[in-house]
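hey can u run this one w/ pyridoxal-5'-phosphate bound, need the structure tokens asap thx
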Amino acid sequence: MTEHWIDLRSDTVTQPNEAMRAAMAAAPVGDDVYGDDPTVNRLQDTTAELFGFEAGLFAPSGTQSNLIALMLHCARGDEYLVGQDAHTYKYEGGGAAVLGSIQPQPIANQADGSLAIADIAHYIKPDDMHFARSRLLALENTIGGKVLSPAYMEEATSFAHGKGLATHLDGARICNAAVKLGISLKDAARGFDSISVCLSKGLGAPVGSVLLGPREFIERGKRWRKMLGGGMRQAGILAAAGLYALEHNVARLADDHANAARLSAGLARIEGLKVATPQTNIFYVQVPPAAVDGLRDALLAARIRATVGEHTRLVTHINISEQDVDHVIAVFSAFFSDWRATR
Ligand SMILES: Cc1ncc(COP(=O)(O)O)c(C=O)c1O
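ok here u go:
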């Protein structure tokens, strides 16, 4: 039994360490609605520079920075093309439609997470009063832990631009993609008109995302952010955590990927489990339906949290060590050996 909880539900569950907390406590602050917060300004400039954009806008969440982007690219009665499995479409409360009056045009994701170019072409509407105006292609990288290749991103963004669409990337885990691909953050963001980068996922900050784009776009975004309730005051305390994360926690994402690979390999040795090979820090395990409830209880009894179901999602992050991984494999193995014996 471990002393601590091992939480594999998401990479959003991380705890800030002492050094990150110290950076937050020491941050010079001001009222960011007036543009006065030096730490927020430094975070916005640093992130824009790192990813190769003109300007950045600090928002409290990825949901809000994505929505600001959608509302900037699309007006009332416009539509955006997006994957069925994309976070902006499926897991953000329908905000684009509800708050932006933007119609989503969902497109089935391919097994590798991409949207087929032929499907994108098919769903772009002609300029005709019967249709919503197709204005934007929104992609996500990584998506479900899968990495979209630079070649695909180049093809999809060039195609969209050729059709007069703008392009937005939900880059909640773009740093995972860049580390996996061994490319710079600039190269990982190339081709997109805007990108939302989350600091509160694998990077380990408690709060925050940065929307990146052209300066004029970001200036207009401040109005939407204010309207959506994201105009924060002495937000430098939060931005300092993001700066710390960008400085210290990007390259180490490779450790999370290695731990996911170790966990997947260990679970794959257990009879009855179908385990995906992770590309980054998120992967899925197919659990026999009859074992789901028992597995959930066994994990909780061993102080392991996971989103257990027929498709169990497992996520590694900064607070999961190699020893934790080995413990999780041992608990799964013991559970399934008992479970098989009683059947
Ligand atoms: C891919 C992706 N995009 C956007 C978000 C939204 O981020 P937030 O929870 O900060 O609103 C998440 C959250 O988990 C996510 O996984």
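Residues 12, 61-63, 87, 140, 170, 172, 198, 200, 209 surround pyridoxal-5'-phosphate (CB under 6 Å). anyway lmk if its weird
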